[in-house]
Specification:
- Helix content is 36%, strand content 18%.
- It is an alpha+beta fold.
- The protein has 2 domains: 2-76, no CATH class; 111-237, Chitinase A, domain 3.
- Strands 1, 2, 3, 4, 5, 6 and 7 form a 7-stranded antiparallel sheet that branches.
- The radius of gyration is 25 Å and the shape is elongated.
- The two termini are 35 Å apart.
Length: 238
């Protein structure tokens, strides 16, 4: 949270140094204004505060920074009160985003389940068969060698196998939707899985990669099944 407050302060300082109602041509402005504007650009490029889901009153934000920086001004909140206000606002914003994402996911999964070729398991996992084969299938303790790509429903790539000969994945150490889906496959087959958030990363997601309530789409090609009872899964990561 301290890092977040610092970011807010840096952003606000840039606004406080040259807060004006009319957009100025900063190429021709005095040095202080040019530095302030450039600093604001740098902060905006490196810290996307829009991801926080908050709306800003830039005048009030600037006044808050000035109240802390200017010795002749008295802040209207204590540091603890300010922290509590920010934490509550961030929590409420995240809750709102999460609920919006959940509604979007429910609609997506319903529509996707109606498409031809889509299979739905009892758990809610959706999949389609891109290339089918017959033969042995993995078990929940199996190590598998696969090629895969993982995307969000908007097409954003968040994970993929980089190894030329495939990635070794222990099925008892991945998200439930992955385990269930790959256990449907035989060597040589290719499936596309639509893994609901309750079988993936749920409400928490993965910060910076997977938003709350995200359905994950994985294209998986099963290259090999390793069912040795004695294998040490950690040895593959050494």
């Amino acid at each position: 949270m301290k890092k977040l407050i610092l970011i807010f302060c840096m952003f606000s300082c840039a606004a406080a140094l040259n807060a004006k109602a009319i957009q100025e041509d900063y190429r021709k402005a005095e040095e202080k204004a040019r530095i302030s504007y450039a600093l604001g650009m740098w902060i905006g490029a490196n810290y996307d505060l829009s991801d926080l889901g908050l709306e800003f009153d830039y005048t009030a934000l600037t006044e808050g920074v000035r109240a802390v920086m200017e010795k002749d001004m008295e802040p209207q909140f204590s540091q603890q009160e300010a922290m509590e206000i920010i934490e509550t606002a961030l929590y409420d914003a995240m809750e709102k985003i999460a609920e919006e994402n959940r509604a979007v996911e429910e609609e997506y999964l319903f529509k996707n389940s109606q498409r031809p070729g889509i299979h739905v398991t009892q758990s809610g996992l959706q999949y389609e068969i891109l290339e089918d084969t017959e033969g042995e299938k993995p078990e929940n303790f199996s190590m598998v060698r696969v090629h895969y790509t993982g995307t969000l429903t908007n097409g954003t790539l968040f994970d993929e196998s980089y190894e030329e000969d495939g990635a070794y994945i222990p099925l008892d150490m991945v998200i439930p939707g992955w385990t269930e889906g790959v256990m449907l496959m035989s060597v040589g087959s290719k499936y596309r899985f639509y893994i609901p958030s309750n079988l993936a990363y749920g409400r928490d997601g993965i910060q910076g990669y997977v938003p709350a309530f995200s359905t994950l789409i994985f294209d998986v090609e099963l290259l090999e099944i390793i069912n040795d009872d004695y294998y040490d899964p950690y040895s593959y990561w050494e």
